[in-house]
Amino acid sequence: MFTSTSNRWRAPLVAAVFTTVALTAAGCSSSGSTAVPGATSTAASGSSDALYKNAIVAKAADILPNSTMAAIKKRGKLIVAEALDAPLLSQQDPSNPDSVTGFDADLAKLLAIYIIGKPNVEIVPPASETREALLANGTVDVVFNTYTITTQRAAQVDFAGPYFESGLAVAVKSDNKNIKSIDDLAGKTVIVGANTPAVTAVPEKQPTAKIVSFGTDPEAVQALTQGRGDAYVQDLTLLASDAVSNKAIKVVGQPFTKEAYGIGLKHDDSDFKKFINSWLVKIQKNGTWGKVWKASLGTVVDSKIPTPPAIGSVPGS
Amino acid sequence: MNVLIDHLGDVLGALATTLVMFLIAGIGSIVIGVLVTVARVSPIPLLRWVAFAYVQFFINVPLLALLVLAIFALPDAGLIAPLEPTAIIVLAFYEAAYVAEAVRSGVNTVAVGQLEASRALGFNQMQSLRLIVVPQALRAVVQPIGNVMIALVMNTALAAAVGVVELTSEVNKINLIEAQPIAIFAGAGIIYMAIALVIGVAAGWVERRVAIVR
Q1: Which residues in chain B have Cβ-Cβ distances shorter than 8 Å to A129?
Q2: Which chain A positions have a beta carbon within 8 Å of B161's beta carbon?
Q3: Do A213 and B181 touch (CB under 8 A)?
Q4: Quick check: A5 pLDDT over 60?
Q5: Out of A153, A213, A226, closest to residue B80 by CB
Q6: pLDDT per residue over A260-309, tens digit each?
Q7: Would you list the DSSP string of A23-92?
Q8: CA distance readout (Å), B176 to A3, A123, A231
Q9: What angle do CA A107, A88, A311 make, to 5 degrees?
Q10: Most confident of A268-282, B88-102, B117-131
């Protein structure tokens, strides 16, 4: 039928238009998505732009024989645990499921290029509760999942990095004038995302605050606007993007914690860890890291490219 | 298990929440379920139709969707209640549909002769339902209702997704700190299993007590 044919083309067309707009707005190209019909590997499409073309590839000598990287290279794809629903970090395009973009997703593709030469990434969406198990049983090679480095976790998995540093901030309804920072939350009801660092960080700062956790960020924002809590504590970048799209909430005060995100690896794989750390140093030095940040997280934060954290600078990394 | 023992206080508190949710929603669902069944076998067509629609609705809409709707959509309609009571009410209405189906199968086990006899003795419709049909129907379905109650305990875990701090939500939080998912979730699983076992054994005991020896 004629109509069904035209419908089939509508989704890719819309995606292409959106991509063009997004690229123009971002002023630089990183997260392009070309809808390639019949793309074989998930998230491997959308690799046509300059960032991926110029991405560095590891020297043959760096891929040690019988190492994890050699196994990945032989397999031809990198298996990554990353979210599909984290805006700016790793989000699947609803109109084009092959395109997963954001800070974590783009770095994962760059790592795949570094090892294999192509951005072949297979995504296994993890629950925060299963990341250690996915690494331990070899289901995934790496975890890119805003995985905060802690010493407890470092006993179970290895962390390369940190590759990004962020912090928890406080958001309130736009008409709230009483809460100006974390210090004003004593005895208040605080909304947090389930399985986020806020679950433990808020009680540490404000033991009298009542914590209510919701499964996803949109639910938490909805709960805040409906008055189920006085404040919503979440990663600053995520809150900033929420506040941009939703005028009913605003971010108050400065971040009150430092979260260092690491790349999760199987425990005791020091060769792989060294390999990834050296890759991180390389992409930080040649400016790729900054470009990826600018195209994703940088679109909602009104500041210049931050200084990437020093590798191994936190306990557990 | 060691990890959970380190956080014993939190785990017990959350377990109490789970059990309270189960008890209130369980009693509520049995009451609503029996009423729905009575409506379903009543001689009034409108009541029968409403009860049928009720059962079909709650059996065919996923519980998580109902919870999210009740927690996030009702406030937009001007109805806002605390999280835990809202979750308990949704659970009660949801499981009531399954209770109603179980009790209805029990009604079918009551012989037609019983109803005919009650009519011959001068019972009206309500009296025959209340005194003859429902008591015998319930005796026949103790074990199926026990199974619905076990499902209810498992379903309380879904409330974790909408902010209720019950057992699942709490062990999630512990895992976030301790990062030992296998030990922690296996431990939580054993707790749920123990609750299910207690309900199953209790249902078996009740069934033997109330069985009609013919």
Answers
A1: 172, 175-176, 181, 185
A2: 194, 214-215
A3: no
A4: no
A5: A226
A6: 899 999 999 999 999 999 999 999 998 889 989 888 888 877 677 888 88
A7: HHHHTS-S------TT-SSTT-----SHHHHT-----GGGS-TTSHHHHHHHHTSEEEE--SEETTTEEE
A8: 50, 22, 21
A9: 40
A10: B88-102
Smallest CA–CA distance, residue A214 to chain B, in Å, is 5
B80–A152 C-beta distance less than 8 A: no
Out of B71, B83, B180, whose CB is closest to A156?
A: B180
Interface touch A227/B80, C-beta < 8 Å: yes
Chain A residue closest in CA terms to B83: A228
Comparison of pLDDT for B3 and A41, the residue scoring more: B3
Q: What is the pLDDT of residue A280?
A: 93
**Would you call B76 an interface residue with chain A, using a CB distance cutoff of 8 Å?**
yes
Q: Which of A233, A225, A237 is nearest to A198 (CA)?
A: A233
Residue of chain B whose alpha carbon sits nearest to that of A134:
B181
Q: Do A215 and B161 touch (CB under 8 A)?
A: yes
Q: Which two tokens stand for residue A18?
A: 């959106």
H helices of A83-178, in order, are 103-116, 131-136, 151-154
**pLDDT at residue A225 greater than cutoff 80:** yes
Q: At what angle do helices A236-245 and A217-225 cross, to 10 degrees?
A: 60
Count CB neighbours of B167 within 10 A: 26
AA letter at B169: S
Query: Residue B72 has what pLDDT?
Result: 87
Lowest mean pLDDT among A283-287, B64-68, B78-82, B123-127: B78-82
Say which residue the tokens 């630089």 belong to. A28
Give Rg (Cα) of chain B: 20
Is the distance from CB of A174 to CB of A194 less than 8 angstroms?
no
Cα end-to-end distance, chain A, whole Å: 58
CATH superfamily of B2-210: MetI-like (1.10.3720.10)
Closest alpha carbon to A16 in A103, A99, A118 = A99
pTM of full prediction above 0.90: no
Task: Give me the residue spans of the domains in chain B.
Answer: 2-210
pLDDT tens-digit profile of A7-60?
A: 444 544 445 544 444 444 444 433 333 333 433 333 333 433 677 877 888 888
In this complex, is the C-beta atom of B75 within 8 Å of any C-beta atom belonging to chain A?
Answer: yes
Q: Which chain B residues are Cβ-neighbours of A226 within 8 angstroms? A: 72, 75-76, 80
